[in-house]
Amino acid sequence: MHSISNNDKDPTVSFGLAVRNGSAHLQTAIESILLQSYPNFELIISDNNSNDDTVKICNGFVQKDSRIRLINQPKNMGAIANFRYVALKARGKYFAWVSDHDIWYPDWLHELVHVLERNPSVVLTYPIVENIGEFGEIFESSCHKKFETHGVERKERIKALYLRGEGYGNIVYGLFRREALEKAGIYRNYLMPDVLLLWEISMYGSLKLVPKKLWYRRKAKTRFSIERQKQMCFSRPPWYISLPWPITNSVSLLWTTVLNTNVGFLSHRIDGLILTFLFLAKHFKLLAKPNHYNIKGKQVTVPSKFLNKFADIIVKHL
Questions:
Q1: Could you give the C-alpha distances from 155 to 164, 186, 251, in angstroms and in order?
Q2: Per CATH, which fold does 13-218 belong to?
Q3: Closest CA to 4 of 45, 47, 36
Q4: Rounded-to-5 percentages of helix, strand, coil across the chain
Q5: pTM of the entire structure?
Q6: Rounded distance between C-alpha atoms, residue 171 and residue 166, angstroms
Q7: What is the helix (H) or strand (E) element at residue 46, kind and residue range?
Q8: Residues of the chain with CATH 3.90.550.10
Q9: Alpha carbons 2 and 13: distance in angstroms, whole number
Q10: What is the pLDDT of residues 119-150, one digit of tens each?
Q11: Could you say which DSSP state residue 41 is in?
């Protein structure tokens, strides 16, 4: 049985595995986590009321490795709540979400901890990812997007997100500074929570890429869609998910970075206002064109061209 060298101290890193019916590749995923060359971590597994062999597989690992904690949820709480749950149970200085189907190189954690220890301004670091298929075959179209905001001030980070920000679904599986993650609300109860999180956490520090291939991401058989996310993310969908997600997420950013009484200095509020507007402009630009939305049976047109022109003016003066 593997034990952390000093049981009187919290682990340096917490891994959070939020899983539901993930038995297909779970064994391989957990094995690659436990084989990390950096040993001082805990693995928190929250099973979201699975009805396959997920719990059986997890229990097998729990009996062999004292670094693992398994929590069985009595009912399906939705993916967002489960992601929040494992993060809130974390004890480590650093935190990373891990999936039930991916594979991590043995030095994944060693390399990323090294970055955070040497760069106190970095709030999230992540490596290059290789996409793999059901049987481990590497896709020729593997994602090698190299976005980062390290080494620049907050306004420049906001500008970079607007101009070049992408690959959020990969970046969010990097290693976080847990204090900053909690400041940014972890996973808020909105669609596209990974996008919202990475914009908000950029108020508190930079994102840094480790230019090494350290992670195999197994691509899902089903293609991403907002409708599928609505079904998976919530046990009880909130009323506002019928609205376009850029609007609801922008309202969240406006509250958390500008209007909330705990925000602090005026400079933070001003930057938060810029962040909110650029978030809104960028994500309307990326949605289907023309920007028509059906809201409670009524077709609504969003003036994205105006938003984008105004956003471009703001960016030029940052």
A1: 14, 22, 20
A2: Spore Coat Polysaccharide Biosynthesis Protein SpsA; Chain A (3.90.550)
A3: 36
A4: 40, 20, 40
A5: 0.90
A6: 9
A7: strand 41-47
A8: 13-218
A9: 16
A10: 999 999 999 999 898 888 887 655 556 899 99
A11: E
